[in-house]
UniProtKB/TrEMBL annotation:
Pfam families: adh_short. This is Short-chain dehydrogenase. PANTHER family: 5-KETO-D-GLUCONATE 5-REDUCTASE, DECAPRENYLPHOSPHORYL-2-KETO-BETA-D-ERYTHRO-PENTOSE REDUCTASE. The keyword Oxidoreductase applies. Keywords: Oxidoreductase. The keyword Oxidoreductase applies. The lineage of its organism: Bacteria, Bacillati, Actinomycetota, Actinomycetes, Kitasatosporales. It comes from Streptomyces lomondensis. It comes from the Bacteria. Belongs to the short-chain dehydrogenases/reductases (SDR) family. InterPro entries: NAD(P)-bd_dom_sf, Sc_DH/Rdtase_CS, SDR_fam.
């Protein structure tokens, strides 16, 4: 069970090789977390991540999970919850895609959408129902500022994150009063393997900074977390710009 500060003893990570998720897991293990489930596609990277977390003193399990196979989510995730209560689920899988290629190849664009939105809807609903059944827990959803307003440079990815963000907000409203806390995290540009080689945006951040924000959000039981916090003001201004002006911005 969680303590008064909202930090979990047990953590399920969906997207077990995500650098942001692993930074968050490390931070929570340093505080209170003792059991971690890393769910992702079987790979040496997943096993390496598990080994690193074990080295920090946590009991770590890996489980085969594929966001693109929603028919398996009920069984795969159900087995994890059957092992005992999960205090926090971190939904952190995602696919950035390649905007230029994805515009030329609709199947590639669909893969981005199915990973970031359809897969997340399926896994999110399965986990939400399990958390509700146990009567407590947090579902932390990694969204993105890219979902606040579609940009020419990444509107396929941005539109998938917009859908995910709206879904997570609605799910939080649906679960209000049940004992389940839903928190949407909206990072800006994060320096990870996924963004390596891309032009860095203003207010760029790190996985460790996102992890710090997640911990603070859990302690405060926040519903929305921006990383860095200044992006809340920036995106509010961009969201309300006239479309003609917005199109001329170098973003």
């Amino acid at each position: 069970m969680k303590d008064a500060f909202g930090l979990p003893q047990s953590l399920l990570v969906l997207g077990g090789t995500s650098e942001i998720a692993l930074a968050t897991a490390r931070r929570l293990i340093a505080r209170r977390t003792r059991t971690v489930w890393l769910a992702g596609r079987p790979s040496p990277a997943l096993e390496e991540a598990a080994g690193q977390l074990r080295g920090l003193g946590a009991e770590v399990h890996t489980v085969a999970f594929d966001a693109l196979d929603p028919t398996s989510h009920e069984a795969v995730l159900g087995k994890i919850f059957a092992e005992g209560d999960i205090d926090m689920v971190l939904l952190a899988f995602g696919l950035l895609g390649d905007q230029a290629r994805d515009e030329r190849e609709p199947e590639a664009a669909v893969r981005v959408a199915q990973t970031n939105y359809t897969g997340a809807v399926s896994a999110g609903l399965v986990c939400a129902r399990a958390l509700q059944s146990q009567g407590h827990g947090s579902l932390v959803v990694m969204s993105s500022v890219a979902g606040e307003r579609a940009r020419r440079a990444n509107f396929i990815y941005g539109s998938s994150k917009a859908g995910l963000d709206a879904f997570a907000q609605g799910l939080g409203d649906a679960l209000h009063g049940t004992g389940v806390h839903v928190m949407v995290v909206r990072p800006g540009f994060v320096r990870t393997r996924m963004t390596a080689g891309l032009p860095e945006s203003p207010l760029a951040t790190t996985p460790e900074a996102v992890a710090t924000a997640v911990e603070l959000g859990l302690r405060r039981r926040s519903e929305t977390v921006w990383v860095p916090g200044a992006l809340r003001v920036v995106m509010s201004a961009l969201r309300h710009l006239p479309r003609g002006v917005f199109r001329r911005l170098p973003i």
